[in-house]
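An instance follows:
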Amino acid sequence: KEAVPPLINIITDTDTDVFVRRSAIDALGNIQSKEAVPPLINIITDTGEDIDVLCSAIEVLGNIQSKEAVPPLINIITDTDTNSSLLEIAIRALGNIQSKEAVPPLINIITDTDTNSSLLEIAIRALGNIQSKEAIESLINIITDTNTDRYVRRIAIEALLGIEPEQYQPYSITHWTNLLSNRIRNR
C-alpha cells in the first residue's frame, strides 16, 4: 500500500519512460489498487497517450474489475478508429468486469459481418463472462451459421452454456457441435 502513491506519480507523469510507466501500471494491477482507478481512467481517456501505456492501463482496469472504467471502455470499443490491439484488450476488460452495460456494443460486434474471427472470438468470450441472456439469440445465430469458423462456433456454444447452463448443460460441447452441424447440413 505504501508503494501506491509513488506508482501513481509515475503513471501520471507523461515525461516518464513508457516502459517504466507500463511497469508501474502492472505493479498497481498486482496490488489491486482501487486508488489507481481514477488515474488509470485518465490514461485510457487521453487520446494522445502511448498505445502500450493505454493497453496496460485497460488490462489492469479489467483485472481489478473497475465498474468506473466501463463507460470509457465502451467508448473505445464503439470508436471505429480504435486500434485493433486496443479494441481486443478493451473487449477482454469489459468481459472481466462483467458489466451488463457492455452487452449491446458487444452484441453489435458479434453481429457485424465485417468482424474478423479473432475479434469475434474475444467478444463472444466477453459475452459469455457477462452471462447476459440478451446475447443468446446472437450466439445461436453464430452457432448455426455455416459461414462462421468452426472454432468460433464452438466458443459461442461454450458462451451459451455459461449463460443458460440449466437449459443447455445436459449436452456436451461435442454433442452440440455435431447436432448443429447436422442441422445445418439438412437445411
